[in-house]
Automatic annotation (TrEMBL):
Protein name in the entry: Nucleic acid-binding protein
Alphabetical keyword list: Ribonucleoprotein, Ribosomal protein
Classification via Pfam families: Ribosomal_S17
An MF annotation (GO) of this entry: structural constituent of ribosome
The species this protein was found in: Polyplosphaeria fusca
Length: 209
């Protein structure tokens, strides 16, 4: 019954969230991939003094093309959850700092961001459909009827394979580092071994004489 309702419904492939737009300043850029920190001005009311004080809020904002630099005045849009900590996305650049906006990678428009979300959703549905998830199969059929391009299995699992390979490589590096630290205490120089045995080299004997 639920699958039939999904199949016959006219709702979009991805859910559209209620959003709001605010203006802020980029205070940190280049430290995270495709993400920046933006400070938005705000005020807080003090009950005792009955006065408003400055109380800015800092948000982690998605920057899909790494278009922003520190000092940019930007317009950000809420309601775009990209991860556990990112719920805002860059809407436009109000006043660039340093190099002009035309010399940087373009900021994605609302339509481009929607197309990117649909593409990521379909990639996830292809992976879920291979495991037998019926809702994903119905959504793929609905997307196909609406004219969306359905990704292949190779495209759907390409990023997953890359992530698994990187994780295995990092695990091997950490294991190798631990083994090296354990072996570091066992390695002794020839000079230390001679001192333990009480033997001296010809140069050390000459110095004593």
């Amino acid at each position: 019954m639920v699958l039939k309702a999904i199949q016959t419904s006219t709702r979009p492939i991805v859910r559209e969230h209620i959003s709001s737009i605010s203006i802020g300043v980029v205070v940190s850029a280049g430290k995270m991939d495709r993400a920046v920190k933006v400070r938005v001005a705000g005020q807080q009311w003090h009950k005792k003094f009955r006065k408003s004080y400055a109380s800015p809020n800092t948000h982690v904002v998605a920057d899909p093309n790494n278009s922003l630099v520190e000092g940019d005045v930007v317009r950000i849009e809420s309601g775009n959850r990209c991860s556990k900590t990112i719920r805002h996305v860059v809407h436009s650049i109000v006043a660039p700092f340093g190099s002009p906006a035309t010399d940087r990678p373009p900021v994605l428009s609302q339509k481009e961001r929607l197309d990117l979300r649909i593409k990521e959703k379909l990639l996830k549905d292809v992976r879920s459909a291979t495991r037998g998830r019926q809702v994903s199969k119905v959504r793929l059929d609905m997307a196909k009827k609406r004219g969306y391009k359905i990704p292949s299995l190779e495209e759907a699992f390409r990023n997953v394979t890359l992530v698994e390979t990187e994780e295995k490589a990092s695990e091997n590096d950490s294991i190798g580092a631990e083994v090296h630290e354990e072996q570091a205490g066992q390695v002794e120089t020839a000079k230390e071994r001679r001192r333990e045995k009480g033997t001296e080299t010809a140069e050390e004997k000459e110095v004593k004489e």
